[in-house]
Amino acid sequence: MLTQPIAAGAAVVLCSDVVGGSSRAGRSGAVAGGAPGLSLERLSFELRRDFPGLRIVVAPGICESRAAAARAGERLGARTVVVGCRRARAIPAAAVFGSATGAGESVTTMRLVNLEAHDGADPTAVAEQAAARLRASLVAALCPGAEPPLVHSSRHARGSVARRRLVDAWRPDRAGVRTAGLVELEAVARALTGDARRLGLGVVIVCPEAAPSVRLGGGSLPLEVPSLEVVTAGWLLRLLADGVDAEVLGCEDDSCAARAEALTGLRDQLVEVVGEGAGCLRPPGAEPPSAHFTLHEPEATVSAMRALGRVARSTKGGAWRIESPAASLGEVGIAAEKCSACQCCVTACHTGALRADAGRVGSLRFVFDASLCPACGRCESVCPERAVSLRRVLDSATLGPPGIPIADVKSSPRCSRCGRPTAAGLTTTVVAERLSASHPRVVDRLRNASLCGDCLLLR
Is the four-CA dihedral 78, 84, 87, 90 of positive or negative sign? Predict the structure, then answer.
């Protein structure tokens, strides 16, 4: 149970088109389109169990006009408002927010929740799922440092610089990034995962532009994200490890559809290789989702893989490996014969996944820890010799001992006088090959000199 305090007052405003029969508590029946209406009494019980003191009101016609939204705003009396209606996806958030604040209320956070139900769906299932969606939205709204929803801004950013900035702001594989948006999304995902497990449902990670919408009464709860480009394999693994079937639903945009296809393919591989069944891979009797639930990479992937590794239900005797462009961990390789030992790759690695240790005399040993690698590709992009390669993989070997040697690179010879490297530690043969056409005299000295630069000046 969440049982969260209501900070500075919070309210849920339900459109009358989702409440069965009328706006009076306890009445239920069919609403427009043949979909079952919500029992206000049951919904109030479900939400107030976790949010004591929550105010829940019904307002007519929120879906139909801005005037109706304004009338709802006059009755809010709360700083945090969650609005539930059948056409939430079609209402601009700015219009509802503007109507409420224009009525003179001090509303600071407003969320729209789509409560459209399947025709003929079981009323009990509809009520339970509606409560789960409203609960998740309240968690988001009350999350410390909560940001306004980015759903509607993504509609005008598809394929543009604005969309790129949106994705960059949310990417969970950036150096040390834990934006308020990602922390908020983690809280929502944790709430949805708990409700999905309790109700025997799955979770579908959905693009806000996806059509059709995920309706009440189906087999999944929606986790709406600003863009599927911010979703990683670790998110799918986290859901699967907690015993919740995971799906991905994209929109018609080419990049979004491609991302959804890649993530769906990876999810299918995970289910096939790691465990049996439709996706409920969590070990029997393991602990439920806890405060350690994270969507930040690479922690999300590694923690979920550890949870799955406890049961070793693989068809390959416990060891498994999946290589996919959607994988959220990397596997770095270094071609020792091309490497100049400049260590640019080590400097570029912001997670400490790649490091260089002193190996044998006159050599440098590169050590790689896959559990720290979010596959950002920086090490590969900065290598001047193109000696670094990166693959996106999920490998059970990642759970083994950290720090695997991947290359021993011969460094420059030592100065015969002072003992320091003659070429600042770089591999003279590789550097000489690069400079052979433009600096032949420097190359000759690199290949033949036994003194470092300082000792040459003192000679």
Answer: positive
Is pLDDT at 177 greater than 50 in this prediction? no
Rounded Cα gap, residues 161 and 153, in angstroms: 12
Quote the pLDDT of residue 456: 63
For residue 167, the one-letter residue type is V
Do residue 157 and residue 291 come from a single domain? yes
CB of 397 within 8 A of CB of 321? yes
CA gap 50, 198 in Å, rounded: 15
Residue 97 in tokens = 């927010």
> For residues 436 and 453, what is the distance between their CA atoms, to the nearest angstrom?
19
Are 259 and 318 within one domain? yes
Domain containing residue 198: 144-323
Residue 99 has pLDDT above 80, yes or no: no
Residue 292 shares a structural domain with residue 392 = no
Two structure tokens written together for 142: 């009350």
Nearest to 97 by CA among 80, 116, 120: 80
Q: Is the domain of 198 the same as that of 258?
A: yes
- Residue among 130, 238, 188 at smallest CA distance from 2: 188
Judge if 284 and 258 occupy the same domain: yes
Q: Which of 144-148, 280-284, 337-341, 447-451 has the lowest mean pLDDT?
A: 280-284
Asked if 380 and 389 touch (Cβ cutoff 8 Å), the reply is yes
The average confidence (pLDDT) of the chain is 74
Torsion of the alpha carbons at 284, 288, 294 and 299, rounded to the nearest 10 = -40
Say how far apart CA 20 and CA 353 lie, in whole Å. Answer: 56
Strand segments (E) across 9-68: 10-15, 55-59
DSSP readout, 195-221? HHHHHT-EEEEE-TT-SS---BTSSEE
**With the C-alpha atoms ordered 156, 247, 112, 191, is the resulting torsion angle positive or negative?**
negative
Taking the C-alpha atoms of residue 405 and residue 390, their distance in angstroms, rounded to an integer, is 15
Residue 102 one-letter amino acid: G
pTM of the model: 0.76
Q: Which of 323, 344, 364 is the last residue of a domain?
A: 323
